[in-house]
Amino acid sequence: MAPTILPEFFVLLGTDLFLLLSLLTCLLEDRFPKALPYVFQVAAVIGFGHLMISKEFLAIFGEYMRFWYCFFYLLVALINIVAINVRFATSQKAWILAKAWAGTVTFPTIMISVFFVSNYGYVSSAEFPLLLLQVGLVIAAVMIGVSAAIFLSPDILPKLRRGKEVK
């Protein structure tokens, strides 16, 4: 049975994640080195270059090999997202930002990646029950909403904590 998506889709998804990281690190420029958004842009250009020359790999490599090097590129993008989250979490001043980043960026991108990898035809060990996948996506959506509210209005969290202490 042929897979419903090509392995190069994972490179496209990884490229989009690198562009997302470039944009977000540019927006949070006071918390990162100035060159970091450009490093992520170079990684995205490498992904686009890979897509341009991947048509040559169709004849050389089989589908199994193409899956693994495309999946590796996506994995590198996900590791960079988690590394930024760890950087925020280890900094004492950015703990709230780390929680917001985890809810709005890290968790949803990992869930989306798991969704597409689990739907790939050759990965039989990564298949999830449909109910578990649906519950995970609902939890991701709720976390995105809560984290976005906390990120956009950080004074909500102390108000909620004071409300619990008063009762």
What is the structure about, briefly put?
This protein has 167 residues and is an all-alpha fold.
Polypeptide structure, described:
The chain is mainly α. The chain has one domain. Helix content is 78%, strand content 0%. It is built from 6 helices and no strands. Helix 1 (8-27) runs antiparallel to helix 2. Mean pLDDT is 79; it is low at 123-128.
Radius of gyration: 19 Å
Envelope shape = flat
- Give the averaged pLDDT, no decimals: 79
User: How many individual helices?
Assistant: 6
Give the class from helix and strand content and strand pairing.
Answer: mainly alpha
Sheet of most strands: none
Total domain count? 1
Strand content: under 5%
Q: What is the N-to-C order of secondary-structure elements (H for helix, E for strand)?
A: HHHHHH
- In total, how many beta strands? 0
Helicity range: over 70%
> How far apart are the first and last residues' alpha carbons, in Å?
60 Å
Low-confidence parts = 123-128
